[in-house]
Every structure is written in C-alpha cells, then in structure tokens.
Amino acid sequence: MIYHKSVMLSESIEALMVRPGGIYVDATFGGGGHTAEILKRLHGGRIIAFDQDPDALENRPSDPRVTMVNSNFRFIKNFLRLHQAFPVDGILADLGLSSHQIDQPERGFSTRFEGALDMRMDPRKGKTAGNVINEYDEEQLSLLFYQFGEIKNGRKLASIIVSARKANPIFTTSELAKLAGDCAPVGKEHKYLARVFQSLRIEVNQELDALREFLKQAANSLKPQGRLVVISYHSLEDKLVKNYFRSGNFDGVIEKDFYGNELTPLKLISRKAYVPSEEEISVNSRARSAKMRVAEKK
To answer: What is the CA radius of gyration of the chain?
Structure first.
C-alpha cells in the first residue's frame, strides 16, 4: 500500500537546493517521500524529520542520517537544539493530509467514509471533532465555520447542528454530512462538506496557530542562504505563508528601519507561488489545490 504520494516532489527538493553535507528538516514526514529524495542528495549530512502522527513512525527509513521527532512542527526550534542540529541548511513542510490519514475511516478525516468524528492529527491528544460538534455553542460553531471554512451560511449550519444534538449526540461523519447537506448549495454538496470538515480539522488541531509558530521558528532556525519551502492546500494557509515570507509578519506589511532597509528575515525566491503541472494533477488529483512558496534566509 502506498502511504502517501508526495505532491510537487521534484520541484520542492530542487527548490531546497540540498547541499551534500547539510542538515535538513522534513517538517511533515508522512510517508517519507521528501526525506527519501533529500537522502539521495546527502553525503554525510543529516535530516531531522517531524510528524505528530504515530502512524508515520512506521515509515522511518533505516538510515542513521535520519532523526525522527514524533511531535508537532510548532516545536521545531526546541527539538533542533535538543538534537544538536541548530541552525539548519533547509526546511521543507508539506501541509496536506496524507493519503493514509484520509483513507482510514476511523480517523474521521474523509467525507467519503463512515467513521467517528475524530480528526486529530495526533490521536493521543486533545479534543476530537465530535467534542467540538457536541460541546461548542451555536456562536462558537458559526464562527469557526466562517473563519476556517469560509462558509457564508455557517450560522444556519450551526443552528441545525445545535438543534439536532438536543435529541441525540452527533458521533459520526455520516451524521454530520447529512446535517450539512441541508445547508449545501445544490450541485456543490461535496465542496461544501469538504469546507465543513476543513474547519473542524483546523480547530481540532489548531493548525493555523501551529503554522504561525512554525514559520517564525523556521525562519530563525535557518543558516544564512538556507531555504524554506512550504506547500499549502487552502487559502488560509497560503495567506499566512505568503505574508510571512514577504514581510516577516502575518499582516503582510513590510517594516523598515531608519535608513529604509526592509526588516524582513527572508528573501523571496519567487513572488508567485509555484503550482503542480497538469501532468501531475492528472495522476494525483489531490495535488490540484497545492501552492508551493520558497524563501531564503538573508
């Protein structure tokens, strides 16, 4: 079984500009596709690979150059110091869900399968999507649907959920899908449900907060001329990456010193995001929404 097909694999590794003796971070190890490609280019270097999902540890290569960290990448700086790997020559993060996570019904990530409303990247920790659906009040639910799913009628959906759970708690993906179907525009049911699931997944895993922390720490963890490569899959992620790469903050406003020098830690390699080729999209539909941005430490 293929755990995960890496998106923009050759493009991202090329953008990383791997130096044979360098130290690199695969911040989202998953099936290990990016790590395997980096290893091919290393001669005496190291990789520190992060993944908070315990399942990903099973894909660890039997290579002494790889150090696995079973933790969220928001703690990248502390772990790099712990493993005496600070600073590093390059960092790569592919923010998408792995095919393995999506295809496991019990994880609750997929709109296609019947499963428990879980959605935790690390199934050992924290609240589940079921906790959110059954415990958040109507205002909290409508806000997260609007902010994290960009769902315009999130208030209506929240009201339907709160009314339904008074009779019976909502435990499964199919139960939620049925309720969401009553709010979805005709002909766009799948896209609507995907946004509902996205909003819950972001809330459960605090994904945007983790990304903000990761970006700040990653920029600080690079050597001069070190590369930071990030592949994102929806506009909320991409906006954070775009703004931080451009300005060193999440508002996107470039600050300058007294002499007019830009106070930014990174230099853009390209102002525009890189996107997958039509050929890649034809063989891997999950690549369709991917955007890759590349920056270099000043």
So the answer is: 20
pLDDT, averaged per 10 consecutive residues of the chain (298 residues), comes to: 75 98 97 96 97 91 96 98 98 85 75 90 93 98 97 97 97 95 93 96 97 98 98 97 98 94 95 97 92 98
> Cα dist. 27→67, 178, 193, 214, 298 in Å?
12, 36, 28, 9, 21
CA distances in angstroms from 217 to 74, 75, 88, 98, 254, listed in the order given = 8, 8, 12, 24, 19
Q: Kindly report the CATH class assigned to 9-99+207-297.
A: alpha beta
Res 100: pLDDT? 65
pTM assigned to the model: 0.94
> Crossing angle, helix 173-181 and helix 189-205, to 10 degrees?
130
Give the right CATH number for 102-205 from 3.30.1330.10, 1.10.150.170, 3.40.630.30, 3.30.830.10: 1.10.150.170
Query: What contacts 84, CB < 8 A, 6 or more positions away?
Result: none
What pLDDT, on the 0 to 100 scale, is given for residue 147? 97
Long-range contacts, 137-142 (Cβ 8 Å, 24+): 137/162, 138/162
Residue of 162, 253, 266 whose CA lies nearest to 220: 266
